Amino acid sequence: MKVIKKTISLIIIFSIFNITMIAPIYSATVQVKSGTYIQLELTESISSDNVNNSKTINFRVTSPLVQDGKTIIAAGATAKGVVESVDSAGMLGAEGELGISLKSVTAVDGTRIPLSASKFIKGKDKSMTAMIVGIFLCFPFIFMKGGEAELQAGSTIEAMIIGSPDIEVN
Which residues constitute the domain of residue 146? Predict the structure, then answer.
């Protein structure tokens, strides 16, 4: 009985030792290069009339980021952004405005990598039309709203990786 217990214990110890020796062969750590650019696309349409400040918006990576022959960020990986500023279209033809910034992207090991990118969009300015037509032809045109700022799903934005986190890759 003691011989069987010792044999099983030795088998378990050698198995654990072998797994820890083999694991580095199958996975490696790669440090992401700060300043690397990735291409992202918006997954949902947003408009200055239907979002609020601080709303989280989702993006996805359009092509993988490969470094040292290893994929660090897979195509289709999720990225998060946030609405930084929003102003709906107003009277007298004032256009809507929308400002967004990218915050992070998910690496192949689940690490959130910080990003730097922003985009500012303005709607169509109709103030001159509203004033001229409203004053000279038809008074209700003074109440005409400008165009809303819109960003359609599939719109692309380039973001820069900031920081240099270590990523476990296979």
Answer: 28-169
Tell me if 16 is assigned to some domain. no
The answer to whether residues 162 and 37 touch, using CB atoms and an 8 Å cutoff, is no
State pTM to two decimals: 0.70
Q: Is residue 5 part of a domain?
A: no
Q: d(Cα 103, Cα 28) in Å, to the nearest integer?
A: 26
Q: How distant, in Å, are the alpha carbons of 56, 57, 58, 71 from that of 68?
A: 32, 31, 28, 8
Cβ(154)–Cβ(39) under 8 Å? no
| The predicted structure's pLDDT at residue 136 | 56
**Pairwise CA distance, residues 118 & 101, whole Å:** 4
At 166, the pLDDT band (50, 70, 90 cuts) reads: confident
Q: Would 15 be classed as within a structural domain? A: no
Of residues 98 and 145, more confidence is placed in 98
State the CATH number of the domain containing residue 104. Answer: 2.40.128.260
Tally of domains in the chain: 1
- CA-CA distances (angstroms) from residue 35 to 40, 115, 158? 15, 9, 12
Residue 131 scores a pLDDT above 70: no
